[in-house]
Amino acid sequence: MKKQKIEFSSHTGNLALMRNFVREFLDAYPLSDKERTLMVLGVDEACTNVIRYAYQLRDDQLIALSIEGMRKCVRMRLRDYGEQAAESEMRGRSPETVEPGGLGLYLIRNAFDRVDYILKRRGTELVLTKNLERLDEAA
Length: 139
Known about the structure:
This protein is 35% helix and 27% strand. It is an alpha+beta fold.
């Protein structure tokens, strides 16, 4: 099992660093370019949501991202210590609806096979899982 972790402040300037970290980690796994790109965009969107909603655009708050590569899946854990959103507010909207905003959660759910929100005493842990088994069978 391969595991790496990165911690950064909630400044949007750190998102490029985070995206490169995720991209380099995923290079070791049998993912298509499309899947890898969707996963990077999904984590970027999740971090943007943390900055926007959990931290109310404050740029000095901690965000931690750990990635575990296992035999059957890649799992990412995004941890924040900000305001929690009610699960009913985490619905997003249908991609067929033509209006700005609201597609971030759709993108995240499309990029990963499983999306779990774990409410902590302080903040939230978002667990994103991408199965690899299915990919091996297709090859």
